[in-house]
Amino acid sequence: MSRWRPDARERLEAAALELFERQGFAATTVPQIAERAGLTTRTFFRYFADKREVMYAGDQFPALVARIFAEAPADASPVDLVTTSIQRFSDEELEHQRDTIRRRSAIIQSDPGLRERSLRKRADLSEAVRDGLLRRGVPDRTAALLADMAATVFEMALSEWIDGDGERALSVLALENLNLLREALAV
Amino acid sequence: MSRWRPDARERLEAAALELFERQGFAATTVPQIAERAGLTTRTFFRYFADKREVMYAGDQFPALVARIFAEAPADASPVDLVTTSIQRFSDEELEHQRDTIRRRSAIIQSDPGLRERSLRKRADLSEAVRDGLLRRGVPDRTAALLADMAATVFEMALSEWIDGDGERALSVLALENLNLLREALAV
To answer: Following DSSP, what letter does each residue of chain A receive, concatenated?
Structure first.
């Protein structure tokens, strides 16, 4: 088995997902995942802290959100910043891997520990949006409220997108939800 | 020990809170709570399914939210319905028991099972708001978004209220948060 391959991470993710689907999350071990990917257990641990983490390519997400915020125009309003970050995050990171995300979502629903970790990941993402807004001078309470609202809007779109037929992009669904909320609150 | 007293529920709640604070949630048993309240274990189970439920006088909350919605004027807009229900719920149910809620909140934070149940209770409350909006003819997605946003706004106000000095009412803090969000989204 080669000790390093350029696609090791992707191979491990694919192998884990297949095994989780076939034999269940709890019954699958790290050595099984590594073997299926044609890699060593040691290589596995170079990429992931444990078998749960294989389900979350998402640890780079907060950093990505920070970058998207940093790249937004200086005169963007807080809601523009939220809109842009939802849109870019969806289009650049998630849209092309709908099938994988859908399959992961089914595994996550099957395991309480994974469900709990998902809540924490959601909180991390919302925290990244909040930090981005704070760094742009948005006051504390407004930043926290907008970040939590962004998480709501995004999460609802995510489940519509996963359950749907893939005809409509995640970012379209998310921005539709944001606009529905804005209209409802504008009355 | 008398088998029925008009204030049995309140006595059990007070006894449980004292014991949880003194010896910890995990170490406290139902017989201990009943004894401290001067009641039988059997009486305890007439009011609560288990010792966790003593922390949630809240099982009637969804029903209360439904009643508040039913009593709102026929021409109230969706956001007016949300505003009214947050305001009445805060003023009529929570404002007068800030000290108890603050003490309960500290116990809940100390126990993972209680934290999890709190998330479920939050979801029930959000569901009640959503149902109330649906019954008023608000479209499905808007109802779900507004209900989740109401939960965000309310929860943030709740922790500000608990951590604060009690000078400002919960409903004032919640409506302030709602207005901050409305203003940020209106831009």
So the answer is: --S--TTHHHHHHHHHHHHHHHH-TTT--HHHHHHHHTS-HHHHHHH-SSTTGGG-GGGGHHHHHHHHHHHS-TT--HHHHHHHHHHHHIIIIIGGGHHHHHHHHHHHHH-HHHHHHHHHHHHHHHHHHHHHHHHTT--HHHHHHHHHHHHHHHHHHHHHHHHS-S-S-HHHHHHHHHHHHHHHHH-
Please spell the DSSP secondary structure of A9-53, one letter per residue.
HHHHHHHHHHHHHHH-TTT--HHHHHHHHTS-HHHHHHH-SSTTG
Q: Which residue of B has its CA nearest to A115?
A: B116
| Two tokens, residue B137 | 């003819």
Residue in A closest to B116 by C-alpha: A116
Residue A186 to residue B70: CA distance in whole angstroms: 23
CA–CA separation, B96 and B98 (whole Å):
6
> How do the pLDDT tens digits run along chain B, 187 residues long?
545 567 999 999 999 999 999 999 999 999 999 999 999 999 999 999 999 989 886 567 788 888 999 999 989 999 999 999 999 999 998 999 899 999 999 999 999 888 888 888 888 889 999 999 999 999 999 999 999 999 999 999 999 999 988 899 999 999 999 999 999 998 7
Interface contact flag, A185 B79, Cβ < 8 Å: yes
Structure tokens at B50: 């288990």
Helix, strand, coil share (%) of chain B residues, nearest 5: 80, 0, 20
For chain A, say whether B42 makes contact (Cβ under 8 Å). Answer: no
CB-based contact B181 A78, cutoff 8 Å: no
